[in-house]
Amino acid sequence: MASCFQGCVFLLAMVVLALSTPCSHALRIVKPKTRTSVFVSPKFVLEPGSVADKNYYDVNFPRGHIAIKSFNGEVIDEEGNPIPLHETYLHHWVVGRYYGRTGFVEPEEARFDDFQRSDFAFVRNSGVCQGDTNGQYFGLGSETRRTDTQVPDPFGIEVGNPAVVPAGYEERWLLNVHAIDTRGAENGLGCTECRCDLYNVSTDSRGQPLRPGYKGGLRCCYDGTQCRVKQGFNGVKRNLYLRYTVKWVDWSDSIIPVKIYIFDVTDKMNRSAGLAIEHECRVEYDVEESCSATSDECVDSRSSVVTMPTGGYVIYGVAHQHTGGIRSTLYGEDGRVLCSSIPIYGKGKEAGDEAGYIVGMSTCYPQPGSIKINDGETLTLVSNYSSSQTHTGVMDLFYILVADYLPKSSVLSLDSTL
Length: 418
Ligand SMILES: *[C@@H]1O[C@H](CO)[C@@H](O)[C@H](O)[C@H]1NC(C)=O
Ligand SMILES: *[C@@H]1O[C@H](CO)[C@@H](O)[C@H](O)[C@H]1NC(C)=O
Ligand SMILES: *[C@@H]1O[C@H](CO)[C@@H](O)[C@H](O)[C@H]1NC(C)=O
Prior knowledge:
single chain; mainly beta; 11-stranded mixed beta sheet; 5-stranded antiparallel beta sheet; 22 strands; globular; binds 2-acetamido-2-deoxy-beta-D-glucopyranose
């Protein structure tokens, strides 16, 4: 208590000092006020073995010309209690930005690729997958509770600039939540990995037959499917919600905008298409059980090679992996590590620390200026999973935030170290 009091007085003294210094330089370090908005999604209903894969349009979001400083979420029940992953597995939540025609009301639960072009324009991130694939602004899965998403000062993700919204449209946000109720599951991991046999599914959500050899993944655990539950298991139906927290500041010229890139280890980039490089991101893949003969290592290692259209300074990096994930690393053309992200596995029962689940991913916050990607540089993404058992429908996405330029002060300090 005493030390907090002293700290507060000290802070106050600093502020008074800063405000009373008649030099504009001192004023510039006064940070814009960070605001926090907490929202709750529409409800989804789950019972043992069931799946919700919901699309919500025009969801609550901070309005106006702002810079997003962080975005995170978690599944809660009606009383606001966090729900642990061993009851409701959060496969993912994804937040996308779009322009909706003024007056257009999105039909509930529709897929946005069914909308008319004149009603709906998805605003994807800066790259690099094909079409709208991996085009989201934010997205995490089971790791949501313990993954740092803070964008450091003076950087921010610029949204809501009225000057860029086409006339007759409004900027809106969509939320996709995919959750699986594994209470009483015969094979909990199998349900979370969307194994088709456990869901007794042979067609995808559009009624198309699954391709031969498809053993598991999102095509087998779409909205309304049912994973096998132990006979006689009784569990109540319950109403659940995604509670999401957005931190943001009002836009100002002192904020440096960052671009969002998402790389995908399944990307089969086709460079023979020339300048119009074609990407083929498949998002999911399977890990076969295999252990190396020469050592007792059981590691499945995959990589993809992607070209960064325009470079910049890496401000933040994080990967998304599923259970079994060991590490994901993004390398530059010369082999330098741009960022390496490691899963954190839970050890107990509580929400945020569930044993056997990835409850967080480590992140990278390089000193701004220390990690630079050149225009047209070829990057390599390496994803390692444990292959001591088979996994279906795993992922390896790598998010980075990239700034085109640095604040003047850090350019100066960089110069002075040369
Ligand atoms: C699996 O699906 C088939 C056809 O859709 C159905 O006949 C069968 O009863 C289902 N099996 C189980 C265990 O639900
Ligand atoms: C790569 O792109 C070229 C040019 O567009 C095309 O002819 C070729 O079939 C593509 N290759 C693959 C494997 O898709
Ligand atoms: C990934 O696994 C391979 C094969 O075991 C190993 O050589 C490599 O060092 C690993 N990379 C990372 C980033 O863990």
